[in-house]
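Record pair follows.
FIRST:
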Amino acid sequence: MKNDLKEYVNQINWLNTITGGVSMTAIQVAHDAEKLVISLSAPGVDPESFHIFVNNDKLTIHSFLPEMFDKFIEEQEEEEEPVPMFQRIFDIPNFVDSNHIQAVYSHGQLQVLLPFKDRDEAPRRIDIDIL
């Protein structure tokens, strides 16, 4: 915990002195007939700084400074993680096809597209036989 706090303070200090500060990441969730769309807007953050992971029924979105992500990958084995600039974990609903999630960065906005499963895969009713 002490190392996490130290890392966080160092990151804030570096961001505020070198880059002139950081703006908040804005998140919007919308849907249409075919998919959910998670839109993130983070002014001043390069698209290479975002990293998206799917693990079981969780979608995790991180953004790190480029050199911090390398440290994050290295420290995964050491059980210590640097503090990301942004992190959000979303539950993936059971009606989303998690094998076909995509991400697109355009005009300063990251969009994560979560397509719905085919209607054929919807739950089916099972009749109960009475003996």
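SECOND:
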Amino acid sequence: MSFDLHTKETAPENSQTLLDNSVKSFGMIPNLHAVMAEAPAALEAYQSLHTLFQQTSFDAEELTVVWQTINIEHECHYCVPAHTAIAHSMKVDPAIIDALRNKTDLPTEKLQILRRTTLALVKNRGRLSPSEIQTFKEVGYKNQQLLEIVLGLAQKVMSNYTNHLADTPLDEPFKKFA
């Protein structure tokens, strides 16, 4: 099944303003957005979730841990390099970026537990054991952050699954991180 990479000219009318938003945010229309433009509601939801997740209590490192943990678990050929580029642009420590991609230990216990908790939520479809929740809270996280991980997961399910369906081609700026 092939999907169109929409431009402003080929996108459905309700996606055109959304693609303008993509250009404002990224300086281009990322191919993921070009694919999602086929379904304006999907693109709007994705953009909204992306904005909302960036407004959570997580800092740039924690956002990256949640995004990349999910991207890597879902084996997303597009989002892993795209979020590597985003992490670099957010000035995330390259040691964190590499540890996430290589599945090696993160530099702090708190980030390690964030990754472990995010991964458990993905693998167990939102279920955590009482000991997993206790460990998460012992490093300073709260119920708020559990719900914020769910928000990030919703965003990543949309993008990862879209990329699997569409075999979205990697944008030029992300290729060096493939």
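COMMENT: The radius of gyration is 16 Å.
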